[in-house]
Every structure is written in structure tokens, then in C-alpha cells.
Specification:
The protein has six helices and three strands, in the order αααβααβαβ. With about 130 residues, it is of the alpha+beta class. About 15% of the residues are buried.
């Protein structure tokens, strides 16, 4: 039997249906006692790794941890940030800690946190 090149093999696989290809992969795994799992990149470990992951984060949550003494001002800011109704905003402020904004850009999260802090609230950005 002549040895097939990679291009020849790929041309043959292109003609297979997904079911046929899946059956081939199973047979290949059994024949050669291997698994066709996707390669997983090893994650770096240690404090430097945590800093790298934090730098790569592009979505942040703004969590209201306390309303402070100016609860009405905080409710107003929450309404501006979320477009919630008065009752929903009040319930959010009363039920702290609660997320005000989820999965927002860093700039938006910082701006929201500053607005809430200016109103007297305690805020956490994660």
C-alpha cells in the first residue's frame, strides 16, 4: 500500500460526513490507544500568574457593598446607572451586597464606582 501524504488524507476526510469522521476518530483512538482531546495550555502558577490574569480581565462587575448614610443619593445614582425603577433601585440598595453593573468595560466600571462613592456608598469592583 502506498503511503498517503497529508494532503491526500485531508482530501479523503473532506469527503466524509461528520458521523463518519466521528466513527473514524473513535476507531483511531481504539486502534492506537490514544485520545483526540484538544491540547490545553498550561496556566502559569503563582502570584505573578494572578497579576497576569488580572491584567487580562476585560469585564468587570460593580458591586454595591453598602449604602452609607446618604441612601437616597445612592438610589438616585443606581437608577442613573441601571435605568431601574425607583422600587427596584431601592430594593437593590437595601439588599446589599448586590451587583449594580455586571460584565462592563473597565472604564465604565470605574466611572460607576466613582459615582456611587461620591454619593456615599461603599463599592467593590471585581
Amino acid at each position: 500500500m502506498a503511503k498517503l501524504s497529508q494532503e491526500d488524507l485531508l482530501a479523503q476526510f473532506e469527503e466524509l460526513t461528520l458521523i463518519e469522521l466521528s466513527e473514524f476518530v473513535k476507531a483511531f483512538e481504539e486502534k492506537f490507544d490514544v485520545t483526540a482531546a484538544a491540547a490545553v495550555a498550561a496556566a502559569p502558577v503563582g502570584p505573578a500568574a494572578a497579576a497576569e490574569v488580572a491584567e487580562e480581565q476585560d469585564e468587570f462587575d460593580v458591586i454595591l457593598t453598602g449604602a452609607g448614610e446618604k441612601k437616597i443619593q445612592v438610589i438616585k445614582v443606581v437608577r442613573e446607572l441601571t435605568s431601574l425603577g425607583l422600587k427596584e433601585a431601592k430594593d437593590l440598595v437595601d439588599g446589599t451586597p448586590k451587583p449594580v453593573l455586571e460584565k462592563v468595560a473597565k472604564e465604565a466600571a470605574e466611572k460607576a464606582a466613582e459615582s456611587l462613592k461620591a454619593a456615599g456608598a461603599s463599592v467593590e469592583v471585581k
